[in-house]
Design a protein that fits this description.
This protein is an alpha/beta fold. It has helices at 17-24, 37-54, 78-82, 86-90, 117-132, 184-195, 215-228, 243-246, 258-274, 300-311, 333-341, 402-409, 422-426, 457-468, 474-485, 490-511, 543-546, 570-577, 587-590, 605-628, 636-668; strands at 29-31, 59-61, 69-72, 97-104, 107-113, 141-144, 150-154, 200-202, 234-238, 280-283, 317-321, 352-357, 381-386, 437-441, 552-553, 593-594. It folds into 3 domains: 17-144, Chitobiase, domain 2; 150-485, Glycosidases (TIM Barrel, Alpha-Beta Barrel); 508-555 and 592-668, Alpha-glucuronidase, C-terminal domain (Alpha-d-glucuronidase, C-terminal Domain), CATH 3.90.1330.10. The structure holds 4-O-methyl-beta-D-glucopyranuronic acid (GCW). This is Xylan alpha-1,2-glucuronidase.
């Protein structure tokens, strides 16, 4: 069935009669005075939604007859121009919108308006969301504009259609049949992104293949860009730093070499002949073996600026990643990005964003926020979250990630005193940057339901909603998604919300409680592997990160250890530096703690660690029970899928628990606390 394919854009008949009647008062017709590709999409979407949700026929008109919904911009609609909306519209910029209930010719109507067509489309999707979630719409007056300018998905998709760390099938991009064949799926993908405000897609893996920059591929990329354009989505590519050598025939890729500069300039000019609104490049350089400016004794700014200079005349941007580490440097990996990038603050060109992962290691179930946030005031820093659950149970475990995103966004860097949150660094308000961005490493593939796990759709959804408005709560986003995706049944909404909101913490408990990190299976990153050692580099082992020994467990990153904590402001250091005060969620991230250490619960560290692992696994059982109450309320197909997945998750939570507890017991040499069943 199509239930999973439809994502949150299901327009099944609403069930509440009073709500339907209220909505019907405004659905006599849709008025669109002047057409454009984007405005036609808005009208079509609105018609689809109204007809589905209300099971009523909706007509179009280009004049106002009385009643209905008027959509457009002041320049495309005489009616909208005549309404006193200009003050409100002024505040909404190029992408925001205003939705009001008003009267035209003394007849009640709803107006969805914006300065630009894309804002009308965003406003339309927002209005539809209100209907899907059964909000009241009388006297509606909404003004909304995105807090972040570039709201982007990063696809780690290879040209052979495999997806690095992708667990939902193969890549959506059918390079072989492009540009001639346009898969309907590209359109559906664009529509889904537009519905949550995502306005950019980096099509290719950051571990880049230079072939994407050759003419045949650029024509294919242009075909995708043509599909995405009316939905407000720009395409971006990853630039392999050694491309001038690999496909350009040059002997060097040194960013300061005149021939190299000229090659990139010509290449970039060529790209714009195919894609006039091409967005720019994401670059992974000098990280995990990728080529970069350091191969030529240049720094990250030299590399980024060379590309930025060639992109600038076309308004393109560079998103230069700060995910760098090297085993040649005898240094705590958590410190390396800061060490390399902080000294470069102020030396990046105006159209460069430095793209920083949320935490200093690598998308772990829990990490502190990255120390670069707040530390590079002169450089726009872009957030990189990971939607694909590389370290969080792939597309098998139910983990709602908004709480993880929010924990990072709401964290206080104290860079300019209290309230200097990561969100305010990223939205540019802290240092007055207008170039801002949030990227999510996509969890999308060609699986029928896009993301493999039906609940993983919520993470895609959350990325879009939080990039538009980082101050939304995880709960609000979950509730919207649940109502649009599954049901408006109040009791079930409550149950689903509870499951989703608990799920991330539950996963932390059965995988990496108390600040543990990077103890998963080797290379594939699925399942427990705290015993991993003897790998090509120390920072690819688990023993490096947990440092368990007979005395205790944890990584001392304070002043007496690796000093990683000293990369943060004194206020932040103060929170974590003492063993006594450090919040327990981060305890083993920052401290090596004796097994007998007394925890807040009164238990010893060893007992507490065991309790957390057991609690995590037990909570999955609870999730299973909660889901079972959805039988008959959600469609049978998704009911069965999720039931099976949660059973696997439960077994694997027990696997994680047993493996970790038994392994760490070889160091603690203590019994499993009484009351907990013995692992086998
Ligand atoms: O999380 C690690 C992954 C790599 C990935 C890298 C990165 C694309 O294990 O697969 O490479 O991060 O973010 O560059």
């Amino acid at each position: 069935s199509e239930d999973g394919y439809q994502l949150w854009l299901r327009y099944n008949k609403l069930t509440d009669a009073a709500t339907i009647n209220q909505y019907k008062a405004y659905t006599q017709g849709i008025v669109l005075e002047k057409e454009s590709p984007t405005l036609l999409l808005a009208r079509q979407e609105l018609q689809l939604a109204l007809q589905g949700l209300l099971q009523t026929k909706v007509t179009f008109s280009n004049t106002f007859q009385g009643g209905g919904i008027i959509i457009g911009t002041p320049s495309s609609s005489g009616i909208i121009a005549s309404l006193a909306l200009s003050d409100k519209l002024k505040a909404t910029g190029d992408e925001g919108f205003v939705i009001v209930q008003t009267r035209v010719k003394n007849k009640p109507c709803i107006v969805i308006s914006a300065n630009k067509d894309i804002g009308v489309l965003y406003g339309t999707f927002h209005f539809i969301r209100l209907l899907q979630t059964q909000q009241r719409i009388e006297n509606i007056a909404i003004t909304s504009a995105p807090a972040i300018k570039h709201r982007i998905l990063n696809h780690w998709d290879n040209l052979d259609r495999t997806v690095e760390r992708g667990y939902a099938g193969f890549s959506l991009w059918d390079w072989h049949r492009l540009p001639g064949y346009i898969d309907q799926r590209y359109i559906d993908y664009a529509r889904a992104n537009a519905s949550i405000g995502i306005n950019g897609a980096v099509l290719t893996n950051v571990n880049a293949n230079a072939q994407i920059l050759t003419e045949p591929y650029l024509k294919k990329v242009a075909a995708l860009a043509n599909v995405f354009r009316p939905y407000g989505i720009k395409v971006y590519l990853t630039a392999r730093f050694s491309a001038p050598v690999e496909i350009g025939g040059l002997s060097t890729a040194d960013p300061l070499d005149a021939n190299v500069k000229a090659w990139w300039k010509k290449k970039i000019d060529e790209i714009y002949t195919y894609i006039p609104d091409f967005g720019g490049f994401t670059v992974k350089a000098n990280s995990e073996g990728q080529p970069g400016p350091q191969n030529y004794n240049r720094n990250h700014a030299d590399g980024a600026n060379m590309l930025a200079e060639a992109l600038a005349p076309h308004n393109g941007i560079v998103m230069w990643r700060a995910f760098v580490y090297s085993n040649e440097v005898p240094e705590d990996r958590a410190k390396q990005a800061y060490n390399e990038f902080k000294p470069l603050d102020g030396s990046f060109a105006k159209n460069v964003l430095v793209q920083v992962k949320n935490g200093p290691i690598d998308f772990q179930p829990r990490e502190p926020f990255h120390p670069l946030f707040g530390a590079m005031p002169k450089t726009p820093l872009m957030m990189e979250f990971q939607l694909t659950q590389e370290y969080l149970g792939f597309a098998t475990h139910l983990v709602y990630l908004a709480p993880l995103f929010k924990e990072c966004l709401d964290a206080d860097t104290y860079a300019k005193g209290k309230g200097s949150t990561v969100a305010h660094v990223v939205d540019g308000s802290l240092e007055n940057h207008s170039l801002t961005g949030i990227a999510g490493v996509a969890n999308i593939g060609n699986d029928r339901n896009w993301t493999g796990h039906p609940f993983a759709q919520a993470n895609w959804y959350a990325l879009g909603r939080l990039a538009w408005n980082p101050s939304l709560s995880s709960e609000t986003v979950a509730e919207e998604w649940i109502r649009a995706t599954f049901t408006n049944n109040e009791k079930s909404v409550h149950t689903l919300k509870d499951m989703m909101l608990a799920s991330r913490e539950v996963t932390v408990q059965y995988m990496t409680p108390l600040g543990l990190h990077h103890i998963m299976g080797w290379n594939h990153h699925y399942g427990p592997g705290p015993w991993i050692k003897d790998k090509p580099r120390a920072d690819w082992t688990s023993v490096y990160y947990h440092q368990a020994d007979e005395n205790g467990i944890g990584f001392n990153r304070t002043a007496t250890g690796s000093k990683a904590l000293l990369q943060y402001t004194p206020e932040v250091q103060k929170i974590y530096s003492s063993l006594e005060n450090c919040p327990e969620e981060y305890l083993l991230w920052y401290h090596h703690v004796p097994w007998n250490y007394k925890m807040k619960s009164g238990r010893t560290l060893w007992d507490e660690l065991c309790h957390r692992y057991y609690q995590g696994a037990d909570s999955v059982r609870r999730m299973q029970q909660q889901w079972s109450t959805l039988k008959g309320i959600v469609d049978e197909e998704r009911f069965q899928q999720v039931s099976s997945l949660i059973s696997i998750q439960h077994q694997e939570a027990i696997w994680w628990r047993n493996a970790c507890v038994l392994y760490f017991q070889t160091f603690s040499k203590k019994d499993i606390p009484s009351g907990l069943e013995k692992p086998d």
